[in-house]
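Running this now, will post back.
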Amino acid sequence: MDLLQLFVLAVVQGVTEFLPISSSGHLILVPLLTEWPDQGLPIDVAVHVGSLGAVVAYLGADLRGMAASVVDRGTPGIMAHPTRRLIVLVAIGTVPVVLVGFAVSDHLDLLRRLDVIGWAMLVFGIVLYLADQYRPNRDRLASMGPGGALAIGCAQILALVPGTSRAGITMTAARLLGYERTEAARFSMLLSIPTITAAGLLLTLELVRRDELALTKDALIGAVLAFVSAFIAIVLMMRWLRRASFTPFVIYRVVFGIGLLVLAYG
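Update: finished.
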């Protein structure tokens, strides 16, 4: 793959994966709006794996605590241990999208269209604004129960539609349930880990099966570039959400969505 194309794809993925603006929608648009050929699913997943490394690095303290809680036998009961409880909540939130994604995986290419991405960017951007502006900032993850995790997990199914944004729809659901902005973003990032890990494992198996050295090299370069850009994007987003709202992301989604609809129908 051309190095410039790979660089653009990796940076686009890294910057957009954890912002509520749809990484998959942007990745699909790169070949649609340029003369570059479609990069294909393996490269898409490779840059997702790079961004996974960034969220693992950023949430290192949380993940170390969750790992330690697995072997901690001092607290009886799963839900009585705060970090062990968080593992259960992430698992509950992951199940819906895995089941539905597996069932419809053969049909998802039908949604890789400008009009679909445009409408999803626009509609779910407005929903994010309403959820963010009209729900209180009262709850933290420590108060989340299985029902809340399941509701956010069910909302994550909508991210199978390009342009919806997995980060955006899970943050929207968390805000609708009353969770603080930074807590909504934190749980959204935790939910990304099992999903992206599963996709990365499938990619690795596919690369081994194909025995394509060039593709493997491209995938590694893309993953590293996505890691760097994603980590920077996460740090800046979390700093912003500690003092401000999701409104700038909403404005971007609305403007971008309208532009895509003009291209699609004009």
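The mean pLDDT is 88. More later if anyone needs it.
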